[in-house]
Amino acid sequence: MSRTLSDPVTLRDTSAWPGYDAIEIIPRVYGRARVKPLRHNETGTAFAVADHAVEAVDSVTLDGEPVAFKWWNGSDATGHACAFIALPEAPDTGARLAAEVRGLSGNPADIVADLYPRADLADFAAHCRNHGLELGGALAERMTVRAAVQFVLSQVGAVWSAGLPGFAQPFPPPDDGPIWADFGPLDLTNWSAECTLDRLVTQLSVSFDFDDAEGKARQSLTLEAPTASKTHGVRESELALPWVRDARQATATATAYLQWRARPLWRVQFSAGVQYRDLQPGGWVSIRHPRLPLSGLWLYVITDLDPGIGRGGVTVTAEAPAGIVPAVAIVGQSSAFEPITTEYSIEAGGDTATLTVTDEAGQKLPGSKVWIDGKGPVTADAAAKVRFQAKPGRHVLRIEADGRRAITTEIQL
Amino acid sequence: MIAVEFGGDHPIIVIGLSLDGYHRPLGGEVASLTVRAAFEQFEPGWLEAPPLGLACSVLFDGEPLMDGALYGVKASAVGVELRIEG
Q1: In a structure prediction context, what are the per-residue pLDDT tens digits for chain A, which is 413 residues long?
Q2: What ipTM was estimated for this complex?
Q3: Helices in A262-363 by DSSP H: which ranges?
Q4: Cα(A167)–Cα(A118) distance, rounded to whole angstroms?
Q5: C-alpha A196: how far from its chain's center?
Q6: Is B64 exposed, middle or buried (0-12, 13-18, 19+ CB in 10 A)?
Q7: Which of A191, A263, A291 lies at the smallest CB-CB distance from B49?
Q8: CB-CB contact of B47 with B73 (8 Å)
C-alpha cells in the first residue's frame, strides 16, 4: 500500500529492543549529523547511532573529549539494520556521549524520496546537486510525512505540491523559468489584490547547524535589507535552518527569503475560465489589468489554484513582491558557546576517599555541592575537595558547581 | 470629508470615500480603521509599492480621528482600501 502525506513517518523507538535506558526514537540520520547514541547492551558499551546502515561514524566524544571507538553496520535484536558504536568501557551515567555520523544521502531530494517515495524528483535532485545544497540532521521526532517533507524542503527554501511537476522546486522559481499563463483584463473576474505589513520582513535572524546531541543550534546569522528597514521600519523575524550545516548555504537561503519578503508582497486572487484548469501552483504567470497595482511586466507565482470542478471556473491565488530586489547584508554572525563541563578526580586510600572538583581546564571549583548516594549536599572546601567515607562498591555522585550543568555519575570504589 | 495624511519623503493626502471598521478596543488592543478611496487618488508608483508601516493621520472634516501607520492595502476593480492601525 502506498504511503500518504497524512501518514506518520515510520520511526522506531528503543522499546523495540529487549532492554533500554529510556524510550527514545532511534533516529534516521541524513547527511552529516552529531547525534546522541542510544545504549544497546546490558554492559553499556554498545550504542546504536541510527536506525539504518550509515556511511561512517567519524568521531565519538564523551563530555566533549574524543574517545576511542569502533563502529559497524549490523542488525539489532529484532533483525533490523542499525548502525552501532562500541566503547572500550561503559561511560558514567549522565556523561554526554555524542557521535559524528555520516548517514543517508543529504541531498534534499533524496531525503524527500526516503520519506515519501516517488519517482519524479530527478529535476529537483539535480538542482540541489548543481547548487551544492546538502542537509545534515537526525529525524527523531514523530510527525506526519507532510510535516517532514515540509520541514526538509523549507531548509533549502524550496516549495512543493503534490500537483507540481517534479513535486518540489526552488522558491521563487528561476528568473528565466517559463511563464505558464498570461491573464489579460478580460480573463479576470472578481479580482482583488492585497498586501499587508505583517508579511513584511526586513531583518532576519537565522539559526543553523543544529547539534542533535546537545539540542541546540551551533551558529547563527542576522541579515538585513537596509533600504527596506528605512522605508518600512525594522521588521524582525526568525528562520530556523537546523539541518543546514554551513554559513554559505544558510546565507543563500536566507538572502532569497529576505529578497522576497522585504518588499510589499501583493497577493492576488481572481476567477478565470476553465481553460486554466490544468495550471499548477509554483509557476510564473503574467497578470494584466489597468487597475491592478502590479501589472504588465511583473510576474506572479501561483501559490494556489482551485480548479473549480463543477463550477465552470478556476480560482487562482498568486503573489509577487513590489519594487526592485533589495540588497541584503549580513549584520551579525554568532556561534554557540562550547559546553561548560565539570570534572572531578577521586583519590581513595584507607577509609576515606577525596573528591576534587575542577572545570574542563583543571581549575579548581571551591564551593561546589556534592551529593553521595543521594545524601548531601557537602560543600567543597577552598581546595575544591570533598572527603567521604570510602565504602567499597558503586556509588552515585551528583556535583553542582556555580554556572555549570549539574552532573550525575556512578563511581566504583 | 475623510482624509489620510501620509508624511515621509513623499507626503500625500488621500481623500476617502468612506470609513469602515473603526475599532478602539479596551485592553491595549490595536485600534484600526479602513478608508475606501477612488483609484484615481493614487499615483501608480505609490500604489505599486505602498509604504507599509509609514506613519499617517486620519482626519474627519479636518478633525484628527486617529494617528497610526499604514498596515495594509487592498485593491479591486471598484477601488482601493487602506487599512490603518494605530
Answers
A1: 577 999 999 999 999 999 888 899 999 999 999 999 999 998 999 999 999 999 999 999 998 889 999 999 999 989 999 999 999 999 987 788 999 999 999 999 999 999 999 999 999 999 999 999 999 999 999 999 999 999 999 999 999 998 888 999 999 998 888 999 999 999 999 999 999 999 999 999 999 999 988 889 999 999 999 999 999 999 999 999 999 999 999 999 999 999 999 999 999 999 999 999 999 899 999 999 999 999 878 899 999 999 998 888 999 999 999 999 999 999 999 887 766 667 778 787 777 888 888 887 788 888 888 888 888 888 888 888 888 887 888 788 888 887 776 777 777 77
A2: 0.92
A3: none
A4: 9
A5: 29
A6: exposed
A7: A263
A8: yes
Residues A138 and A33: their CA atoms lie apart, in Å, by 6
* 3-class DSSP assignment, residue B42: coil
With an 8 Å Cβ cutoff, are A194 and B77 in contact? no
Q: Which residues of B touch A300 (CB under 8 A)?
A: none
Cell 508579511: give the residue: A199
Preferred mutation among B39, B48, B54, B84 to probe A, highest tally of A CBs within 10 A: B48
Yes or no: say if A33 and A138 are a contact pair by the CB < 8 Å rule. yes
- From CA A153, how far away is CA A171, in angstroms rounded? 10
The CB-based long-range contact list for A15-21 (8 Å cut-off, 24+ gap) reads A16/A76, A16/A78, A16/A80, A17/A76, A17/A77, A17/A78, A18/A77
- Asked whether the beta carbons of A380 and A367 are under 8 A apart, the reply is yes
The residue type of B59 is: L
Minimum CA–CA partner of B70 in chain A: A197
Q: Do A195 and B50 touch (CB under 8 A)?
A: yes
Nearest to B48 among A197, A232, A294 (CB): A294
Q: Do residue A197 and residue B49 have CB atoms under 8 angstroms apart? A: no
- Is the CB of residue B52 less than 8 Å away from at least one CB of chain A? yes
Q: Where are the beta strands (DSSP E) in A172-211?
A: 179-183, 189-196, 203-211
Residues 2-41, chain B: which have Cβ within 8 Å of A?
Answer: 39
**Angle A201-A205-A206 from CA coordinates, rounded to 5°:** 115
